[in-house]
Amino acid sequence: MSNVLAIANKELRSYFSSPIAYVVIGLFALLYGYFFVALLAYFVRMSMQAGQFGMQGPQAVNVNQQVIRGVMQNVTILVLFLMPMVTMRSYAEEKRSGTMELLLTSPLTDFQIVMGKFLGALALWVVMLAVSLIHMGLLFIYGNPEWKPILTAYLGLLLLGGCFIAVGLFISSLTKNQIVAGMVTFAVFLLLWIIEWIGSFSGPTVDKLTTYLSIIGHFDDFSKGVIDTTHLIYYLSFITFGLFLTAKSVDSERWRG
Amino acid sequence: MIEVQHLTKRYGRVTAVEDVSFRVERGEILGFLGPNGAGKTTTMRILTGYMPATEGKAIVAGFDVFDQPVEAKRRTGYLPETPPLYPDMTVAEYLTFVARIKGVPSNERLQRIRGVMERTRIADMANRMCSKLSKGYKQRVGLAQALIHNPDVLILDEPTAGLDPKQIIETRQLIKALAGDHTIILSTHILPEVSQTCQRVVIINKGHVVAVDTPDNLTARLRGNETMYVQVDAGGVDATGALTRVPGVMRVAESDRRDGIVGYEVESGSGHDVRRDLARAVVASGWGLLELRPMRMSLEEVFLSVTTEELPTAPAAGTETANE
Q1: Which of A114, B165, B181, B196 is buried deepest, with most CB atoms within 10 A?
Q2: Residue B97 confidence (pLDDT)
């Protein structure tokens, strides 16, 4: 465990000692802020209209439903664009600069290295999510949203990010070139994102399969405030599988030399 | 301490190392010598557990590097060809990280880091970014990294590459000083380095071990006949005949000529000291004797002869050519 933490710590530090962390967090804050303002402005107009027409009751306008859930859904798009920047260098750079030789000749197991890198990237993701809490705080100051669905939504985002990181690490472990890693990661993320589109035209079996595979589909319930074990297990097994593939990819690279 | 048995490594169809076997005793410095692409780095990478061998076995500090990699790695320090530094860390941060992953207990960490920084003379660079270091300092930080967990075995891939002459001498002294407590394998293609620092040499070529011996034995083994260099001012006369008539001389060949001064290489059978007779013959002919010195076969020539021929059967081959 101490080895895992040593690597995680090193990863996190290297994000912050290079521009990557600042660029990613900055872009995230900017785009997230934009989504937040846009949805909030729409919500304000909606509720003013609702007030004018005298519509009352909890169904008509709901901060959780119309602002928070929408914003959370939009965050999933940001993950798609920003996460490849976080993961693309993780293995590719170590291989290019020769530091992989240090890691692989140190008394560490492949799994410890993978876990360390995963936790390091996940910690950066947590920092990004922490930035978004500021906006949520504003809602609590001026409004009265429910906190439980927000909590589940954040849990969902954490897991979703974890999935993207696991896939990103695997792709990064396949190449020495950061740019290639980044582009392939983005393409794969996009594919995982839109995979359910194909399902609606092609029979019930394929539909079911693609719906299950769609990484975004599983987030829906979290954003509504529901923790369904199906989705929990989907995300956790997705992460485990991604990390397993990464460890195997590092190992197979050893054999190929 | 290190035992390598019939090691073979193939990359697809390319065989990098084939049937390499050798032993290194505790406290010994073994030089690993070979031209570029001979398989030095591959062998070292197998020994450090970076990659597995296709066939064969390697035991480091009593642990099989394939079956018990973590135990073997705990006892091995490795300096790869390019020092594995993280450019965005300072030297102190880097060594702290390495100490952590190499399993140095946290209460000893500071002391160990200070110790290796002193030994490798990098203490003045402790707060410098690794990316801002000169090549020499990078190499020394790499060496510090290999030493940090006080390993039984040190594997150094070209430890003096890129250093200036003063640093090379310092590094060699450091390596020699480390030898007692640590068992060291170092690879190099700089030959004087081997004769100066190593107790034994493994010469490897095209993936095969072609010679294992002490540097002195290797030079002696391949010397065979004695060769003298004689420079004569004979005033335009060819001195070959006079020199050949000296008893014990087997062959005389002209090696250089400038302004009537001619240099000859005189080969004689081993055990014959022909220097006195050569000098007498030159002086008796009324010529000027400008230079007379024995030509030793350097390790460089040994190296060339074993890496260009298949097997080191050079002494026999030498006699044959002389008889022609």
Answers
A1: A114
A2: 94
Does residue B207 belong to any structural domain of this protein?
Answer: yes
Q: Is residue B269 in a domain?
A: yes
Which of B101, B107, B127, B128 should one mutate to test binding to chain A, selecting the residue with the greatest count of A CBs within 10 A?
B101
Give a yes or no: residue B7 inside a domain.
Answer: yes
Nearest residue of A to residue B15, measured between CA atoms: A257
What's the complex ipTM?
A: 0.86
List the helix and strand counts (H, then E) for chain B: 12, 14
Contact at 8 Å (CB) between B153 and B1? yes
- Does B321 have pLDDT greater than 50? no
- CA dist B126 and B91 (Å) reads 5
Nearest CA in chain B to A102: B84
Would you say residue A201 has pLDDT above 80?
no
Residue that finishes a domain, picked among B220, B236, B256: B220
Chain A residues whose beta carbon lies within 8 Å of the beta carbon of residue B71: 107
Where is the domain boundary, B220, B254, B275? B220
- For chain A, the domain total comes to 1
In contact, B89 and B130? CB cutoff 8 Å: yes
Sign of the dihedral through C-alpha A113, A117, A118, A119: positive
Digit-coded pLDDT (tens) for A204-248:
888 888 888 888 888 888 888 888 898 999 999 999 999 999 999
